[in-house]
């Protein structure tokens, strides 16, 4: 097939029960708020990896689902807001669109980061905002509402056939067949480039330091 799977070097110690992962965390106390919209868990893993590296650089991080952000949460209180969202059949979760449309002014007041997670990005020529059609369309939507992220990264996701229901399994297998991807439904393949994720965390940490926003 010519496709190379990634290997996650991060220790997956954080779980949904960890205090800093809970939607009940005091979001206003964190330097960086990382929001994720994930169906099968890869966007969560990417958000956790970013948080791991940002914490190592000295930044306080809180993680939460996009769907759990309360209307009373002041996004502008954070030095940075990171949205990590996966694509399903060509669309991001509706909650991501709703958040950006309703809270664009708050997002624009922070260092904004958008991470698009999709299987199309397993191909290097589809791994930029300019060449990834789904991401390009979303960024146009966000800009119309007044939000232009300081950083946008297109990251390859993961193929989790054993976790899919019958419909998803057949649909994704069909899409993979059309695009030259893995079609063995017994397999799980992680395409995420973790060095790419680490590089994004480093650039964000450097930007926050340059802004003079050290804790």
Automatic annotation (TrEMBL):
EC number assigned by the record: 1.3.5.3
Location of the Flavodoxin-like domain: 32-215
Keyword tags: Cell membrane, Flavoprotein, FMN, Membrane, Nucleotide-binding, Oxidoreductase, Porphyrin biosynthesis
Pfam family, one: Flavodoxin_5
Cofactor(s) needed by this chain: FMN
GO annotation terms (biological process): protoporphyrinogen IX biosynthetic process
Catalytic activity line of the entry: protoporphyrinogen IX + 3 a ubiquinone = protoporphyrin IX + 3 a ubiquinol; protoporphyrinogen IX + 3 a menaquinone = protoporphyrin IX + 3 a menaquinol; protoporphyrinogen IX + 3 a quinone = protoporphyrin IX + 3 a quinol
The record's free-text note on cofactor binding: Binds 1 FMN non-covalently per subunit.
Topology relative to the membrane: Peripheral membrane protein
GO cellular component terms attached to this protein's record: plasma membrane
Subcellular location: Cell membrane
SUPFAM superfamilies assigned: Flavoproteins
Coarse class of the protein's main subcellular location: membrane
Cross-referenced PANTHER family: PROTOPORPHYRINOGEN IX DEHYDROGENASE [MENAQUINONE], PROTOPORPHYRINOGEN IX DEHYDROGENASE [QUINONE]
Protein family (similarity comment): Belongs to the HemG family.
HAMAP family per UniProt: HemG
UniProt-recorded name of the protein: Protoporphyrinogen IX dehydrogenase [quinone]
Biological classification of the source: Bacteria, Pseudomonadati, Pseudomonadota, Betaproteobacteria, Burkholderiales
